[in-house]
Amino acid sequence: MIDRASRLVPEPRSSADVIGEHSQFRLDLERIRFSPYFSRLSAVTQVIAQPGAGPLIHNRLTHSIKVTAVARAIAVSLTDAASPYRAFALAHGCDAVVVQAAASAHDLGHPPFGHLGERVLDRLARETLGLPDGFEGNAQSYRIITALDVSEMAPRGLNLTAAVRTAVAKYPWTRFLDVDALGDGPLPRGLRRTADGVDVPKYSAYGIDAADLDEARRGLPPLRQSLECSIMDVADDIAYSIHDVDDFHRAGLLSQGAVAREFRGWMESCVRLAGLAADELVGRTAPPGSALEALRRKLNASDPWIADDETFRAAVGVVADDLVDGLLASPFDGSIASERALSSFTNRWITHLQSSVVPAPEGVVRAGLVTLDGPAWHEVEILKFVHRHFILDRSDIVMYQRGLSRVLTRAVKGLTAWIRDEDDRDRVPQRLKELVEIATDAYARLRESAPDGVPVPEASAVGSLGVGRGVIDYVASLSDDQALAVSEAIDGRPDRLWDIGQNL
């Protein structure tokens, strides 16, 4: 088992280190919070872009700060002297500062424009730039802390401890995971079965960073999160299930009538809905409650270890009472009364869900080492359903996202063409040159020593792969506004020329 406080590049221990590994983890937390990548998150969309909804809407930074607060509260509760789970937590390693560091770093790799940007960059990375492992926000976060960010103590990355690097790795494998070795049983979250086999949509390291992840996790069971990572993961679920509802209510996007119709439709007709064929639950003619029924079936299929029809029914009732007939019954108007109602809703749910974290049952691969208890797990799934069904599928939001996808496409293709232009590539931004050099060196090292399962690139492909990964690293590090400015400038529009600034 690797020393949890070890670093890839040994650092001199200071006199402040007399309290042991805990101070090393505190140093990691400070390095992450002082990082320009962390500051950048204030200008990256969470779900709703701030210019259209106001400054009180969550961005990636405020989300990360709140995930950190929830994660710390869970870690402290699990290790409290009065906790029935204290022995379990200490046996698996549960340092609240490691948990805070992982929560602070977990979204560093999110590109401009939220999850839309992640999907667009993945498609461009694979189909246009020929990167076999594409783009993934979690893998980009790991790449930032280990290769792209800077510390005076190491030539690359922040040189964080093994415990913190491990805790950041929510999906501790690469896209090149040996899926044939997984068998026919349940899969960890982040993997899914398809008609063609097993897909790996979520992973925490690109092939060029896999050796670092293997080193950090040495001695840990394969495919299993560390306890500190599991706490961060649960805290992330809790935070965005509540804060997204907060945002949509504040922005006036959640219609009480539409939400009530769906919830009441299911509660009044769940027996009849259960008898409908799957294709009768979709489309304009689907009866009220059909989307919730589809969710119930999905949970039963993907998570039979915890999904339960009676618990689901009870959770629908709880969310209906508190959200539909409670919070949404009065439109948010910016008054003190509406702020108080929203604050009360948020605090009540955060407190309830934090106190519902328990060790996962033995042998359940779909869960980390900790999970929410049955009622809370169902409630979170239903709260997440509200924002997916009533917000993310709105045609006006989808229309806006289609426009943003073209912004990223122009930026990636334009920068790639520029750095491959023999007559003009010397004038590309210095930061882009450096990122291409870092990536090219990494692919060259991969030819010398590739971790198990990671494909070895051909010598002739190293330069092209380096350019592709460098461009993706560059665009992913932009803020929303910087991405818009770069895209317009490279497309020949001068009106935002001076908005680009000195990028990361």
From TrEMBL:
Gene3D superfamilies recorded: Hypothetical protein af1432
Keywords attached to this entry: Hydrolase
SMART domains: HDc
UniProt cross-references to InterPro entries, sorted A to Z: dGTPase, dGTPase-like, HD/PDEase_dom, HD_domain
Residues in HD domain copies: 60-241
SUPFAM superfamilies from the UniProt entry: HD-domain/PDEase-like
Descriptive protein name: Deoxyguanosinetriphosphate triphosphohydrolase family protein
